[in-house]
Structure formats: structure tokens, C-alpha cells
Amino acid sequence: MKNLKYILALLCIVFIIGCEESKIDVDKFGSIQGVIIDGESYEPLEGVLIATNPASSTTLTDNTGNFEFDKVKEGELTITAHKNDYLSNSMSVAVYENETTNLTFFLLKDEKDVGWVDIYDPVPGNGAVDQDTTFSMKWSVDQQYPSKELVYTVYYFASNSTTQLVAGENLTVKEVVVDKFEYNTTYFWYVVARYEGDRVANSPTWSFKTKPSADS
Description:
Helix content: 10-25%
CATH topology of the largest domain: Immunoglobulin-like
CATH class of the largest domain: Mainly Beta
CATH superfamily of the largest domain: Immunoglobulins
Low-confidence stretches: none
């Protein structure tokens, strides 16, 4: 009987150790570094509130527009930037163990309130891969006051770039064709809605990656 109790106790210890080891394996961490830039002047923005979802922590940008989260659990999460007098922006990112994910946000000033405007359902979808270098970028819109006709400007920029390009502006349709993408490059893009010439909303910042080469 004593031997049986000893064996059971030993098995319990092994089980607990195994669980602890499994827990250590699951909890893997990376880091995030980013910079917040005024979308028109390209000046860095200080005091921007940066938050994550799932929630882990928040921080403010420094006087060079930079921020950092030095311990973020591996996986997908959304980073959101808020600043008074600016349109909020968000970006979905992937964090990998022992790697630093670099981000660039362009914030635009909020010029007129026309109720809520939701810009969503991007094509290509967020995180899409193997995209051609020429295709149509599309999106959907819901708004509180549909009678207020909006026009759209689409911005895009390559990964780690601090300069954005315009894919199309003053668009009355929710689609624009772009044929300037490079192969094997990750791009970010977002849509800005305007009403009577003033910015009223922008979409989250989405990403996609083009295919490695023309023969892929």
C-alpha cells in the first residue's frame, strides 16, 4: 500500500511539472515599436494614446512620436491610436516570439462631425498574402446619416516607410485600381471619408503582401 501511495504521489509531481513546462511553452513574448506621424505635415505626434486589444497596457508617444511595448504576448492583436482633434486609427498586427514588430501610423485631423461612419470589409482582406501587383482595392461603409454623401481618399505605404502614397482621391465609389505595387512587399492601406471637403472618418489600417515574383 505504501508503494502504491508513493507511486501515485510521484505521478502527481510529474503531472504538475509537465503542466508547468507546458505553461512556459505557451507564454511566448515579442515586442512592438512604432511611430505616429501627422498624415499631412509628416511631423511626429507627441502624446498620442496607444492601446492594445486584447488589452495588455497603454502608453503615450514621446516627443519624437515613438512608442514601444517591450513585452507583448505572441499572437494577433489590434493597436489603436487616439489623440484629441485627430481621427483615431487602428491596425491589426502579428507578434512573434523574440521579434520586434515595427509599425507606422498616420493620423489625420478631425474636421467635421457627421455622426458615426464605419469603414470595413477591405479587399484584399487584412493580412492577405500572394497578391498581384495590380488589383482593385475595395471597402464597405455604414453611416449614421446615409443622406450625407461621402467621398473617399485611399492611402497606402510600404512596410517601414514613413511616406504614404495616394491610390485615389475624391472617389464616389468604394473601389480604386492600383498598379504600382512591388513584388514581395508588405503594404498597409486605409480609407479616409470626407463630407463637403472635410475629413469625417477613416478606416482601420489594413495590410497585405504581394507575391514573391511575377512567376509565382
